[in-house]
Amino acid sequence: MASTGLQVLGLVLAVMGWVCGSLVCAAPLWRVSAFVGGELVIAQVLWEGLWMNCLSQTTGQIQCKTYDSTLALPTSAQAARGLTVLSLLLCLLALILGVSGAKCTHCMGDGKQADKARLARIAGVLFIVAGLAYLIPICWTAYAVIRDFYDPKVAAPLKRELGPALYLGWGASVMLLVGGVLLHIGSSPPGTRATPVFGRGLTQQYVHLACQS
Asked: HEC states along the chain?
């Protein structure tokens, strides 16, 4: 029952990480206009994401526009796109395998517990890989933003701050990593648990000593 609980908890965390990761991937809130000296660097608030940027007016109007050309984007932005999409696809594959291999489901029948455990362990590894793949562009973008913010050579209107999507992205990565680890630990093959054997050995030793006394 404990291993089943670990599987369910791992799947729930991984699904939450996948949903949060999807929102972060689509949200234009990776980088926002910076405040320098307590004043906004530019008159309008600019939000930048992987696929579009949005301009917020003081009147409350927001105008969003997708990037005209993918090839015109910096290499870091293109790599971030690829890694985030790859991570989400790996999560989808891992979710299918994890649900199929979970002990609380009957997708493969009850007579194939070894195969189900193998699928669940593979799903756990895929979730871990997806979490690492998602963590790379988040940390990369955060490093670039902080570096440019403190670089005196970068013009003030070009400085940015960390957007809320980056913080949510860190949370999504952690949920994917922890969920993958729990799913992998809770999917041990049948007959490999050492706890019953250890307990039986202690009982036999206790009975033997009692008979001698």
From this structure: CHHHHHHHHHHHHHHHHHHHHHHHHHCCCCEEECEECCEECCCCEEEECCCEEEEECCCCCEEEEECCCCCCCCHHHHHHHHHHHHHHHHHHHHHHHHHHHCCCCCCCCCCCHHHHHHHHHHHHHHHHHHHHHHHHHHHHHHHHHHHHHCCCCCCHHHCEEECHHHHHHHHHHHHHHHHHHHHHHCCCCCCCCCHHHHHHHHHHHHHHHHHHC
CA 102 – CA 106 distance, rounded (Å): 8
Number of independent structural domains in the chain = 1
Q: For residue range 11-59, list pLDDT tens digits in order.
A: 999 999 999 999 999 999 999 987 655 554 456 788 999 999 898 877 7
- Judge if pTM exceeds 0.90: no
Weakly modelled stretches of the chain, pLDDT under 50 = 1, 40-41, 193-213
Q: Which domain holds residue 197?
A: 2-212
Alpha-carbon distances of 150 from 96, 155, 159, rounded to whole Å: 44, 11, 9
CATH of the domain at 123: 1.20.140.150
